[in-house]
């Protein structure tokens, strides 16, 4: 079974209302829970089963909308719980966590300036079509993955190898993420208000 349903409000935490939040959670997280719960009895009865959940790299990056990130984080937790609790019944459960792919849902992101930065941040340098996720699902659904369970397969072209701070790497190559974040913390602690603390201070990482 593959749990693939998911939606995204594309609203900031200031803009999102409770109705929108609940809808994203209902479709993306609660839907995964309901479908999994309904499938488990038959899988337990036959002594085998294979559940594949589609999540996202969003929880690793901390970017994007808070409703989507929260829902996909919950999907990751469901995968680990099912794999741990129902492994003795011969049931495997894994997650595929894709980055942005060329889909209708991603059109808004890819057409923006942020989308250009996103592509620049991918080590492989391009955004694929949905076939890359389909091929990952075929692998996890096959007997070739018979000893893989509780795993999250990142299909992201290496995107998560970059930290959140590295998204502005092309604009600030000189200073590492550690320098920028350490300096920001120092300024906050000392109640300073430097717009570019790295122009005034320096650290070695």
Number of domains: 2
Question: Roughly how much helix do the residues carry, as a percent range?
Answer: 40-55%
Strand order of the largest sheet: 1-2-3-4
Overall mean pLDDT: 81
Unreliable spans are 168-205
* CATH T-level topology of the largest domain: Rossmann fold
Largest sheet: 4 strands, parallel
Q: What can you see in these coordinates?
A:
The protein has 205 residues and is α/β, with parallel strands linked by helices. The protein has 2 domains: 2-161, 3-Layer(aba) Sandwich (Rossmann fold), CATH 3.40.50.720; 174-205, no CATH class. Helix content is 44%, strand content 10%. It has helices at 18-46, 58-61, 66-86, 107-110, 113-121, 131-141, 177-189; strands at 2-3, 49-54, 91-98, 152-155. The chain has a 4-stranded parallel sheet with strand order 1-2-3-4, sandwiched between helices. Helix 1 (18-46) links the parallel strand 1 (2-3) and strand 2 (49-54). Helix 1 runs parallel beside helix 3 (66-86). The longest helix is centred in the first third of the chain and has 29 residues, at 18-46. The termini are far apart. Mean pLDDT is 81; it is low at 168-205.
